[in-house]
Amino acid sequence: MKIKILPYSVICCWLLCSLASVAQEKNRPNVIIVMTDDQGYGDLGITGNPHVNTPMIDAFATESIRFKNFYVSPVCAPTRSSLMTGRYSLRTGIRDTYNGGAIMATNEVTIAEMLRQADYKSGIFGKWHLGDNYPSRPSDQGFDESLIHLSGGMGQVGDITTYFKGDRSYFDPVLWHNNKKEAYTGYCSDIFTNEAINFIEKNKDTPFFCYLAFNAPHTPLQVPDAYYQKYKDIDPASGFENDTREHPVMTERDKEDARKVYAMVSNIDDNFGKLLKKLEELQIADNTLIIFMTDNGPQQVRYVDGMRGRKGNVYQGGVRVPFYMRYPSSFKQSKDIKTKVAHIDVLPTLAEICNVPLPKVKEIDGKSLLPLITSSKEDWSNRSLFFYWTRRYPELYNNITVLKGSYKLVGKTDYNASITDFELFNIDEDPYEKQNLILENQLIAVDLKKNLDEKYNQLIASENLIKQPRIRVGTVHENPIILNRNDASGERGIWAQEEVYGKWAVSIEKGYYDIKFKFIKPVKPNGRMYLEANNLVNQMVHKEADTDVIEMKNVYFSEMDCDLIPFYATNSKKIFPFWMEMTKLD
Fold first, then answer.
1. What is the pLDDT of residues 404-413, one digit of tens each?
2. Mean pLDDT, to the nearest integer, of 196-218?
3. Mean per-residue pLDDT for 319-347?
4. % helix / strand / coil in the chain, to the nearest 5?
5. Buried b (16+ CB within 10 A) or exposed e, 459-470
6. Residue 238 above 70 pLDDT?
7. Cα angle 108, 94, 495; round to 5
8. How far apart are CA 28 and CA 288, in angstroms?
9. Which CATH number fits domain 384-464: 3.30.1120, 3.40.1350, 3.90.550, 1.20.144?
10. In CATH, which of 2.30.30.30, 3.20.20.70, 2.60.120.260, 3.40.1390.20 is domain 471-584?
11. Is the pTM of this model over 0.90?
């Protein structure tokens, strides 16, 4: 047998390439994104709040790159889809927080899927809110481990495992670990942090991406009593006597809500400190890139650093949030960056820092923040950012804005409004949006409106918005499947109502199914249960006693895309199930 001896130069080249590859792997940072839910810009000590105690986050911020003008969507699911994909939420199929509009299309490429190219292990702990069923769950979108609650929040109608716990939904919850129900002991924020730390310990020797998405301080405002006791006697409206900015007038209800929120934030701060300590213990802190951010402004009335508006609003208080990034091995000094940037910029930033290609099949709206961090000469003044929020779909010129350079055009008006019905602010000079410049700067406003119209018309024509993502029923990936209220569409604002028209947009595989319909309250006998799917209608009379569960056995479906429309007809009422479970039999 002949042994071929490679030339010395070839061997050296191969060794150098191999060593370079190994060095590149070692230089890739671990990535942790910590995002809180409904924590506004003003809910930190470092942003001027005299009441809330956040020493760990404040200290982290002083060591970080601080983006002083960081923007998100006015509500949570749109922010989360933009964060995960680098794209405006409407491109991804996300158009609402419920009403069937919080399901992200499976053809989107997430941060987890992008980093998988470099063999990252990815885990999510907390709130996903981009689809509770196949093929839109975290495990379907690149995450190796997931521990989440369902829908938009624990204790909300879509989270069927915590809703019926009422004022204890944040304690000892049943959560979904890798798509299976598991019972946990303790307070939700503590659970999510502990499990995130376990994931980090298991993957400390390989690049990892950890997405710790707290559901706190979102409603319902539930917190361990030890934290509440720290704030029970404060007056959240006090302490601003020497502040000339406007601050909201707070009712007693507002003050009590603020006390609970600050207690929840203090708990998050302790958990954040626990996470940072673990990174030091594992000796991986220097090579770990950590982002701390929130998903939108505060839901309740409280301090928001003098800004106008809160959650759901395109004014600054609804869309401007804290954003801190620390990466000790590469970012040697902390600094403030005033350039206006947004959630869509996170994915391309991670792509560049982690040295992985951007998704090639998608239009990425964001830009890498790395040039802003490494250079003081970057000029992004010609870039525009678009935000909106209304239920179901965008409403033309209602709660919609475009931001470009120093100027921000806000539409709070009718679809056919004239330019003078808009508001124009120079937010560099007027960050609190007090002075409407529309009359003296109509040319600037007209130019911004053209930009807004172009972006609006482009986004509402997005394929994933026109062809809304469907839940897949009957696959081996999820059987049985539970369809919950968060993903039901029909009437505007479906929540916990009994008499409401609802439906689920699904793709059903051919076969026989056993179906359970769960109701909020027991229904009376002698009514008729209906299930419609395209031209297929199954019905049966319920003859038994009062019950909150009705079953249909051995129901046949051909393969179809359809709207599943279930209701129980009784005494001229049509009662929509709280959820329905479908089990494929063959």
1. 999 999 999 9
2. 98
3. 97
4. 25, 25, 45
5. beebebbeeebb
6. yes
7. 140
8. 9
9. 3.30.1120
10. 2.60.120.260
11. yes
